[in-house]
Amino acid sequence: MKITVEFNLPDDIHEYNSFKNSEQYKMCLYYYSQWLREKIKYKADELSNEQYKTICECSDRFNEMITESNIDIYD
Fold this sequence. Notes:
With 75 residues, the protein is mainly alpha-helical. It has a domain of 31 residues. It is built from three helices and no strands. The longest helix is centred in the middle third of the chain and has 21 residues. The protein is elongated, with a radius of gyration of 17 Å. The mean pLDDT is 96.
């Protein structure tokens, strides 16, 4: 499959930059999800109950947002 993407620069500079950096955005989301997972799974004993609850809520909401946006950070 071959795809050609065209931008009308400088008018489309924002769209171009988003497209160009999309892999970095995805990797940032992936690393953030792993950081949250690590805190919950491996560092829970270092957290207060309130911190643990907050991180779990953040992780749940993050995963909901990823799912709702149809983003697969694992492919």
